[in-house]
Design goal:
Number of strands: 14
Shape: globular
Distance between the termini: 33 Å
Number of helices: 17
Largest sheet: 6 strands, parallel
Radius of gyration: 21 Å
Helix content: 40-55%
Structural class: alpha/beta
Strand content: 5-15%
Length: 374
């Protein structure tokens, strides 16, 4: 969910900024999981040699106060009230705050409140969204009518496009042979009526059987949403033991691997993807490779942007569609790209990466606004 790396790096190189990272708690899954996630996140950024702070001061048995860091501007990457008040409401009500959504904004659900019209959104100084449809939604549904919103493009995709152009990426697949390399990326919404993306409970075993059946022809990457494991651990018919066994199958089999972290190099070195994710619906289009989206009958929770994408990619309504897609990939993967897929990318997404990158627009806008404040 860290999608602002290019912004952070450019701020590091700009004398006007001194960017730091504060690792905050997510209280959703209990204290043990909270600290585990914080420890892993803190280590991730320390390994990158970023100036990183841990929000819990263990030696003093207390939480860090924002005024101790004395920030001028705070960037959020998630809009939901999942953390301590100190790092959420107190932050956006007392500081200049910016929000870059961690997803590519393809959904339309819950009267568009949770993604576009929480108090959080209306209190932001600036919101930087990935496309015009999202900006229009803010203008229609948010209390402040999107006056704080700019469509800048999705900064997360800059690294992918640069590496794609330069062919400078790492092939991270465990086997680099003749076999087709397919990403299987299930969403986490296994029990959500509000956002019924996931088909995992219906198809998880069928995917395992297909992987075994085609082990001499396909290498699979199991790329679950970061929340899927946690939700399966707590599911009444799954639990931790069953979840660990399923994840281990993909991790340990000779014809598959488990990928739970960064995915830029994974995407670039893949041949195709099958998924029922949200943001990946748009993100994989940047590669101009074959992709299949698994759509549930009752899932019509897409904005116009998402609906338009579904018109230009392969859509599965049952597992037979998925099986046929895989077999056609094996025969000739290049024939499964809808000709309108590239046209959609060029006219609706690629335009944000032609003259300058989204991160440049965001930093430039902040600089100009700071000058206006003085």
């Amino acid at each position: 969910m860290w999608k602002v790396d290019t912004i952070f790096k450019k701020m590091q190189d700009d004398p006007l900024f001194e960017p730091i990272i504060l690792v905050c708690p997510d209280k959703s899954y209990g204290e043990e999981q909270m600290f585990k996630d914080m420890d892993e996140t803190f280590q991730y950024f320390k390994d990158l040699k970023y100036n990183t702070f841990y929000s819990y001061k263990k030696e003093e048995n207390r939480w860090l106060l924002l005024e101790e860091l004395n920030p001028d501007i705070i960037f959020f990457t998630r809009p939901h009230n999942l953390t301590k008040e100190e790092y959420y409401e107190k932050a956006y009500l007392n500081y200049l705050t910016c929000y870059v959504p961690y997803h590519h904004e393809v959904g339309d659900y819950g009267d568009n409140i949770s993604q576009y019209n929480q108090n959080f959104h209306n209190a932001m100084w600036k919101i930087f969204v990935s496309h015009t449809c999202s900006k229009n939604t803010f203008e229609k549904y948010s209390v402040c009518k999107g006056k704080n919103v700019l469509d800048t493009g999705y900064p997360m995709m800059e690294e992918l496009l640069i590496k794609k152009e330069d062919k400078n990426y790492t092939n991270i697949w465990k086997h680099k042979d003749y076999r087709i390399k397919i990403i299987f990326a299930p969403h986490h919404t296994i029990d959500s009526e509000e956002l019924p993306y996931s088909n995992f409970l219906d198809y998880h075993e069928k995917f395992r059987e297909l992987a075994i059946e085609l082990k001499d022809k396909v290498i699979w990457s199991f790329k679950p949403h970061p929340l899927l494991r946690l939700k399966l651990n707590n599911h009444q018919y799954w639990g931790k033991e069953k979840t660990d066994e399923y994840f281990s199958f993909w991790q340990e089999s000779e014809f598959s691997q488990l990928d739970e972290g960064d995915y830029v190099d994974l995407f670039l070195s893949s041949d195709a993807m099958i998924h029922d994710s949200g943001s990946f619906l748009a993100e994989y289009l940047y590669l101009q490779k074959p992709v299949m989206y698994i759509k549930r009958d009752k899932n019509n929770h897409f904005n116009q942007f998402g609906q338009d994408i579904l018109k230009v990619i392969n859509v599965a309504k049952n597992f037979d569609d998925i099986r046929n897609f895989v077999y056609k990939l094996i025969e000739n993967k290049d024939n499964l790209i809808n000709p309108n897929q590239n046209s959609f990318f060029n006219t609706k997404i690629g335009i944000y990466f032609k003259d300058k990158y989204p991160s440049d627009r965001i930093i430039e806008n902040i600089k100009n606004s700071i000058k206006g404040l003085k």
